[in-house]
Amino acid sequence: MQPNPVLKKLGFSDDDRVVIIHTDDIGMCQASVAAFAEMVDFGLISSGAVMVPCPWFLAAAAYSVAHPDADLGVHLTLTSEWNTYRWGPVSTRKPETGLMDDQGFFHKTSQAVWQSADPDAVMAELDAQISKALAARMTLTHIDTHMGSVAHPNFIPGYVQLATKYGLPPMIPRMSAEELMATQGVDEGTAHMITGMINTLEEMGIPLLDRLSRLELVDATDRMGQAKQALGALKPGITHFIIHPSTDTPELRQITDSWACRVADYQTFMSEETRAFIKNEGIQIIGYQALKDLMPAAE
């Protein structure tokens, strides 16, 4: 694949390693909002995304209103993965949409969403989440997807339609079908559909990423070492680098077994050691606002 044309538009060379250090799951719980606020002040993270259906969305929206320069998008949500701390659609309560499980919440897995949800209902729900964020007076820079639930042939066209409707760059990597299958877990049909769509979007002037990377929510041991390894392995191009930072609270510990990884992400990206490593590696940090500025005019 040819070098990303966005690089030169932003003043970079084809060989530059450019990263969006992106904080997921803001508004999922109080600890995620508190961590984001502190990390914005520290200045190492460059973007984040809010989960509109979640209990602490209003706190995240209030932060955005008070800090309009904070780079925030909507973490489009169709799943609710925890056992006793859950959320559901903002657009409907109708079971026939297939958006909900038998408890009335979003399904716990993306696979269950893909099997059950009506594509029109998904489109309406995602649109409602963006609309609710805008109604809360949030300043939005992009859209992305929680647990990859939008990455299905029935849902991706609607996702792209919403990006053009609102003038918000979508989290879509310029990856080959083989790369998508190997690194993102999508099936062959979806991978080829996405690659065709990528070509169309670039012709439309939609700014895209080159790849996704992340710190997995598996092992909190030596998170600094994990971060250095992942960041040091970045290739030329624009990478959406995903972390899940939260402060350490009793609520967080009760919600998820991954609490230690989330707290470790917060600690690692509030560290001068991490900042120095990124600088010494020559990695360039941008936010989604830079991509939004390149978007064609909203429909």
SSE layout:
Blueprint: H1 5-9, E1 17-26, H2 30-42, E2 47-50, H3 57-66, E3 72-76, H4 110-116, H5 119-135, E4 140-145, H6 156-166, H7 177-184, H8 188-204, E5 211-214, H9 223-232, E6 237-243, H10 250-255, H11 259-268, H12 272-281, E7 284-285, H13 288-292
Parallel strand pairs: 1-2, 1-6, 1-7, 2-3, 3-4, 5-6
Description:
The protein is of the alpha/beta class and 299 residues long. The protein has a single domain (5-292), classed as TIM Barrel (Alpha-Beta Barrel). The protein has helices at residues 5-9, 30-42, 57-66, 110-116, 119-135, 156-166, 177-184, 188-204, 223-232, 250-255, 259-268, 272-281, 288-292; strands spanning 17-26, 47-50, 72-76, 140-145, 211-214, 237-243, 284-285. Strands 1, 2, 3, 4, 5, 6 and 7 form a 7-stranded parallel beta sheet that branches. Helix 9 links the parallel strand 5 (211-214) and strand 6 (237-243). Helix 9 (223-232) runs parallel beside helix 12.
In short:
The chain is α/β, with parallel strands linked by helices and 299 residues long. The protein has helices spanning 5-9, 30-42, 57-66, 110-116, 119-135, 156-166, 177-184, 188-204, 223-232, 250-255, 259-268, 272-281, 288-292; strands at residues 17-26, 47-50, 72-76, 140-145, 211-214, 237-243, 284-285. It has one domain: Glycoside hydrolase/deacetylase (TIM Barrel, Alpha-Beta Barrel), CATH 3.20.20.370.
List keywords for this structure.
single chain, 299 residues, alpha/beta, TIM Barrel, seven-stranded parallel beta sheet, globular
How much is the radius of gyration in Å? 18 Å
Mind summarizing the main beta sheet?
Answer: 7 strands, parallel
From the spread of the alpha carbons, the general shape counts as: globular
The amount of helix comes to 40-55%
Order of helices and strands: HEHEHEHHEHHHEHEHHHEH
- The total beta strand count reads 7
Strand content: 5-15%
Low-pLDDT runs of 5+ residues are: none
CATH architecture descriptor: Alpha-Beta Barrel
Task: Please report the distance between the alpha carbons of the first and last residues.
Answer: 29 Å
| CATH class group | Alpha Beta
Number of domains: 1
User: Which quaternary structure do these chains form?
Assistant: single chain
Mean pLDDT across the residues is 96
Q: What fold name stands as the CATH topology? A: TIM Barrel
Number of separate helices: 13
Summing up helix and strand content along with how strands pair, one would put the structural category as: alpha/beta
| CATH superfamily label | Glycoside hydrolase/deacetylase
